[in-house]
Amino acid sequence: MRASASITIAILFAVGATQTRAHRAPGGWDYPFECCSEADCARIDASAVREVRSGFVVTIAPGRHPMWPTERREPLVLEISHQKARQSPDGLWHLCINDAGELLCFYAPGGDS
Predict the structure, then answer these.
(1) Strands 85-87 and 103-108: what pairing?
(2) Cα–Cα distance measured from residue 9 to residue 14, given in angstroms and rounded to the nearest whole number
(3) pLDDT of residue 17
(4) Would you give the distance in Å from CA 33 to the centre of its chain?
(5) CA distances from 77 to 35, 61, 74 (A)
């Protein structure tokens, strides 16, 4: 019985850790755990996204995303295939990148993308 109590506590800690590491989008939905660690995701302006035949070209100016601060000086340009784009729950554009500017997740509005 004691071993099962320890397992239950370990599971509760694991679930709690997952919930504290993800964060909420401005529209009220949660970014999935695999996309962020509390600062990696942010809504981006539609003007930062250009749709091309193979997907999207996203250009983030320094200071326009929490993970791409003004100290970067150069814009971040990402080419994202349609297959990597996820449906945006709030109909807005969202980008999740790590501090090296590598893509974690990208959310595109349906229909307008």
Answers:
(1) parallel
(2) 9
(3) 37
(4) 9
(5) 18, 9, 9
Q: Which amino acid is at 73?
A: R
**Do the Cβ atoms of 90 and 29 come closer than 8 Å?**
yes
pLDDT at 7 over 60: no
| pLDDT tens digits, one per residue of 33-60 | 889 877 799 999 999 999 999 999 999 9
3-class SS shares of the chain: helix, strand, coil, % to 5: 30, 30, 40
- The tokens for 89 are 């729950």
- What is the pLDDT confidence band of residue 8, given thresholds at 50, 70 and 90? very low
Q: Which 3 state secondary structure label does DSSP give 33? A: helix
